[in-house]
């Protein structure tokens, strides 16, 4: 079945540091890929998505590129802020299933 | 537009008690789902529904029941609570169950079973 493997952390960075969160997936066909973010005490919300190979999703300074050759969807941000402190989840759907499958999530703390 | 709402926000149960977690959405979304979030486990799908009158099991359905009598509501019932059901529960909805559709999440219900 479909699965997602991502860095689990927790990770602590200083403000303005570069962020990469690795995500790889296993799925048949051509799934859609997502990054969701969960701020403290809240539900998840969509950060960005990509629906086909070589698509780049971007939002709030975050970017991720759908790489079918490496089955990856790594999340990057060039300069993190304290307000980016949250848990980040990589997820996929499709590839034969309508269900959304999540990675285990990675907690990021950004210090001033 | 309230989006996806969940009640209660917090709940403490004793082993063996039953209860219903409420979920409602006002976006006319066809697809609704319930997840549980446990430390180190990410989110796991409990049950889902592709429309009123239709429900199906997810990854971890045991001990939970659902029904979907209206498009708006998707309650989750715990039949006989167990400590293993201590978790944070999230309800989500999307326009349809297609693979590229964004899911909108409620704020969650934190459940403790003693």
Largest sheet of chain B: 7 strands, mixed
Number of helices of chain A: 0
Quick one: which chains have the greatest interface?
A-B, 25 and 25 residues
Can you give the mean pLDDT of chain B? Answer: 93
Oligomer: heterodimer
Class inferred from helices and paired strands of chain B: mainly beta
Q: How many helices of chain B does DSSP assign?
A: 0
**What percent of residues of chain A adopt helix (DSSP H or I)?**
under 10%
Average pLDDT value of chain A? Answer: 93
Topology order of chain A in helix (H) and strand (E) letters: EEEEEEEEEEEE
Protein described:
The complex is a heterodimer of chains A (112) and B (114). With 112 residues, chain A is an all-beta fold. In chain A, 0% of the residues lie in helices and 54% in strands. Chain A is globular, with a radius of gyration of 13 Å. The termini of chain A are far apart. By secondary structure, chain B is mainly β. Chain B is built from no helices and 11 strands. The model of chain B has no long low-confidence stretch (mean pLDDT 93). At the A-B interface, β6, β10 and β11 of A face β5 and β10 of B.
């Amino acid at each position: 079945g479909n699965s997602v493997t991502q860095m689990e952390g927790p990770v602590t960075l200083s403000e303005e540091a570069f962020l990469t969160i690795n995500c790889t997936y296993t799925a048949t066909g051509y799934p859609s890929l997502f990054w969701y973010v969960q701020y403290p005490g809240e539900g998840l919300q969509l950060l960005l998505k990509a629906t086909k190979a070589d698509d780049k999703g971007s939002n709030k300074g975050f970017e991720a590129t759908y790489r079918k050759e490496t089955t990856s969807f790594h999340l990057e941000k060039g300069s993190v802020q304290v307000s980016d402190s949250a848990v980040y989840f990589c997820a996929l759907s499709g590839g034969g299933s309508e269900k959304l499958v999540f990675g285990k999530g990675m907690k990021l703390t950004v210090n001033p | 537009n309230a989006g996806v709402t969940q009640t209660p926000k917090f709940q403490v149960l004793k082993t063996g008690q039953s209860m219903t977690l409420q979920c409602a959405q006002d976006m006319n979304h066809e697809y609704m789902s319930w997840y549980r979030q446990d430390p180190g486990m990410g989110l796991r799908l409990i049950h889902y529904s592709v429309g009123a009158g239709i429900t199906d099991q997810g990854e971890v359905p045991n001990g939970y029941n659902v029904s979907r009598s209206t498009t708006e509501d998707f309650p989750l019932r715990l039949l006989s609570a167990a400590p293993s059901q201590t978790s944070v529960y999230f309800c989500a909805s999307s326009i349809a169950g297609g693979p590229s559709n964004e899911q909108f999440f409620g704020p969650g219900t934190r459940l403790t079973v003693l």
